[in-house]
């Protein structure tokens, strides 16, 4: 029969070994994601593009003044654009393309859950002094929006417009 002291040590050892997995899993979630195939899903504002199809590159600067430069883009329907985002600020910014309604809903969720993690081909998270990119095919004509949906940034006016002109 085991003594109560040995049983307590065994329980402690087992609980310590079981807690290591979640701790490691949590720390790994903050590592840079490995390259994986982009899931292409048609959105009202387009679809994830192929790097081989890029027709031009547009650089967009992000600042802690809560602005994008430029904040107005015009592209032709069917164009695949490489959007390069340069964060010249001291805080994390993001670039998310969508409709005004989609961005409003997403921004409201970001206020409620500021640590929310998401990764879609129409968004880029760019750390201070870093660069990110999106390759997007604008295959639907219309006026669309982009924004930084980090809590407070959207509300401070970190937004822009994309006009997709029909052929």
Features:
Immunoglobulin-like; 2 domains; 10 strands; single chain; five-stranded mixed β-sheet; alpha+beta; 2 helices
3D architecture notes:
The chain is an alpha+beta fold and 167 residues long. It has two domains: 1-31; 47-165, Immunoglobulin-like (Sandwich), CATH 2.60.40. Helices cover 23% and strands 35% of the residues. It is built from two helices and ten strands; from the N terminus they run H-E-E-E-E-E-E-H-E-E-E-E. The strands form two sheets. It has a five-stranded mixed sheet with strand order 1-8-5-2-3, with no helix packed on it. A five-stranded mixed sheet has the order 4-10-9-6-7, with helices on one face. The chain is globular and about 40 Å long. The N and C termini lie far apart (83 Å).
Report mean pLDDT, rounded to a whole number. Answer: 82
Strand residues, percent: 25-35%
Count of all domains: 2
Question: Can you list the strand order of the major beta sheet?
Answer: 1-8-5-2-3
Class inferred from helices and paired strands = alpha+beta
- General form: globular
Unreliable stretches, pLDDT < 50, 5 or more residues? 6-34
Termini separation comes to: 83 Å
Specify the CATH architecture of the largest domain. Answer: Sandwich
Helix-residue proportion: 10-25%
N-to-C series of helices and strands: HEEEEEEHEEEE
Biggest pleated-sheet summary: 5 strands, mixed
CATH class of the largest domain: Mainly Beta
CATH topology of the largest domain: Immunoglobulin-like
**Rg calc:** 21 Å
């Amino acid at each position: 029969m085991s003594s109560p002291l040995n049983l307590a040590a065994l329980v402690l050892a087992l609980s310590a070994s079981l807690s290591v997995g979640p701790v490691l899993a949590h720390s790994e979630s903050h590592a840079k994601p490995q390259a994986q195939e982009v899931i292409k899903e048609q959105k009202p504002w387009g679809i994830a593009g192929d790097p081989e199809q890029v027709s031009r590159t547009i650089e967009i600067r992000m600042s802690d003044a809560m602005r994008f430069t430029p904040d107005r883009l015009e592209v032709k329907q069917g164009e695949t654009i490489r959007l390069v985002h340069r964060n010249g600020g001291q805080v994390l910014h993001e670039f998310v393309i969508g409709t005004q309604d989609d961005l409003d809903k997403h921004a409201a969720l970001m206020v409620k859950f500021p640590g929310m993690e998401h990764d879609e081909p129409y968004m880029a998270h760019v750390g201070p002094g870093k660069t990110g990119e999106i390759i997007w095919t604008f295959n639907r004509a219309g006026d669309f929006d982009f924004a930084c949906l980090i809590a407070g940034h959207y509300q401070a006016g970190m937004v822009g417009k994309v006009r997709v002109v029909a052929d």
